[in-house]
Amino acid sequence: MRLTFTTLFCFGLLVSFAQTGTLKESLKVKSTILGKEVSYCVYLPAGYDATNRRYPVLYLLHGYTDNETGWVQFGEAPYIADKAIAAGEATPMIIIMPDAGVSWYINSYDGKVKYEDFFVKELIPHVDATYRSRPTKEFRAVAGLSMGGHGSFLMATRHPDLFVACAPLSGAFWTEESVTKTPDDVWARIFADLYGKDLKGADRFTPHLRSYSGLEIVKDGNADELKKVKYYIDCGDDDFLIEGNMALHLEMKNKGIPHEFRVRDGAHDWTYWRTALPDVLKFVSQSFHR
Question: Are 46 and 18 a contacting pair, CB within 8 Å?
Fold first, then answer.
């Protein structure tokens, strides 16, 4: 009997090992739009190299001052994905984690940095040409944390024909009041290169900024277009961004846009985002299902 238990234990270890996906870090994609190479990490689910199967894709976006390795090193995304897939709580999927610097995933007001254009016109086509993805909206989702939460929501709402699901975590959603009251030194350091230099108070709320404001996109956007995407919004109750997330929730509710909204115990940190990722994987998996 002891031999039987030992055999079963070893078999369980082998099964667990066999369910481990493959991670490739800091690969490069050449961008003509940005005039440089952009790094990204890719998670390929277990069995990817053993079959000709095609997989849905999740684009997982990092936060401010981080890079393509953030979700790998601090978010433990590959481990969490392996565990969720093995448990049957998430479908096997490709996860792409691109570097965005401090671009906020947008095109800057002066056209010097066009990260949104790169993402839509170069990164997605590169992924679909390089990996065995299912290259249609029905099998493509985007999620992210903080700056990446902001970016994921923008990508989905500005390009609703590209994504079936969107899951911003602790998204950087700013109200008009918070934009106008941002201290000048913070504006100069973080936002001036994106939206305009030497802007103060209400002058900061330019048409360009409005076009990249999650709240304004919902407020001014076509509800039928916005409803083409399924949304999962999650922010901690102690997060400094909770006000903007609650305002977004109310705007979407008033506009009649279906979405999941979660406020859990936690702050703006990796502990919160690691615990959020399993539910994100489950949510996008359900969105991928026919």
Answer: yes
Q: 36-44 and 22-31 as β-strands: parallel, antiparallel, unpaired?
A: antiparallel
Tell me whether strands 94-98 and 140-145 are parallel, antiparallel or unpaired: unpaired
Going along the chain from its start, the domains and CATH numbers come out as: 20-174+213-284 (3.40.50.1820)
H or E element in which residue 9 lies? helix 2-18
Output DSSP code: residue 188: I
Are residues 197 and 187 in contact, defined by beta-carbon separation less than 8 angstroms? Answer: no
Nearest one of 133, 113, 170 to 59, comparing CA atoms: 133
Rounded Cα–Cα distance for residues 49 and 54 (Å): 11
User: Is 37 in a helix, a strand, or coil?
Assistant: strand
Q: Is the pLDDT of residue 109 over 50?
A: yes
Q: Whole-angstrom Cα distance, residue 108 to residue 264?
A: 33
Q: What confidence tier does 16 reach under pLDDT thresholds 50, 70, 90?
A: very low
